[in-house]
Design a protein that fits this description.
Layout (H helix, E strand, L loop, with lengths): L2 H10 L3 H61 L5 H23 L5 H15 L3 E7 L3 E2 L9 E12 H12 L6 E11 L2 E12 L8
């Protein structure tokens, strides 16, 4: 008699309640392994992107502060040649604009973000969209002159665990830049689960324009 056959005989000899308890423990173990292998890496990537966002905000804020300081020096220096100073400042402003543009280059626009997320969802064909909504925008930095806003969007999806992981992977592989803010996963009725996703991008207008 093989080891598997021995286990089967022992399992069949258990009461119905004991069999359900063993099956439930097995499901919990499988779910824990899935969360560790798929959700945890996605969460770590979200943390990395959040750190990148903070670095971008710091860089833009520093550039804007430098620009403001130069403008103040221009006002306070009565002996400078005004024409030369203005010309130099214009060049500096152009360089500053180029630096800021490099910081945000490649980020998906708020107008494209929601439609792109829906497009990826339709391609999967296995998840159902529970809700989608735009969240209030916020300044990227405390410096109002920086002129860039965060535009968040929230989606709630329902489906099997593997389908949710596949959708998150497809989003991660998109050739555009955006930030992860939140991934909240919970089992609704096994094997059906629900995930709340929040991502956001940058825009030069406070008003969010959905796709």
């Amino acid at each position: 008699m093989t080891f598997i056959q021995t286990l089967k005989i022992r399992f069949d000899s258990l009461t119905r309640r004991e069999q359900w308890m063993i099956a439930l423990c097995g499901w919990i173990c499988m779910l824990s392994i899935g969360v560790f292998n798929f959700i945890e890496p996605a969460y770590q990537q979200m943390i990395v992107k959040e750190q990148q966002k903070k670095a971008t905000a710091i860089n833009i804020n520093a550039l804007m502060t430098l620009n403001n300081q130069q403008l103040e020096l221009l006002k306070k220096d009565p002996n400078s040649d005004l024409d030369q100073a203005l010309s130099a400042q214009q060049k500096q402003n152009l360089k500053l604009a180029e630096e800021i543009q490099k910081q945000v280059a490649g980020y998906i626009s708020s107008a494209q973000m929601s439609s792109l997320m829906e497009k990826v969802l339709k391609q999967s064909g296995t998840l159902s969209l529970v809700s989608m909504r735009s969240l209030p925008s916020a300044l990227l930095t405390q410096n109002k002159d920086a002129g860039y806003y965060l535009h968040p969007i929230e989606m709630t999806l329902r489906g099997r665990f593997t389908d949710i992981v596949e959708y998150l992977t497809d989003l991660e592989d998109l050739p555009v830049k955006y930030f992860w803010r939140k991934v909240d996963y919970r089992v609704v009725d096994y094997p059906t689960a629900e995930v709340v996703i929040q991502i956001y991008t940058l825009g030069d207008s406070k008003r969010f324009i959905g796709g």
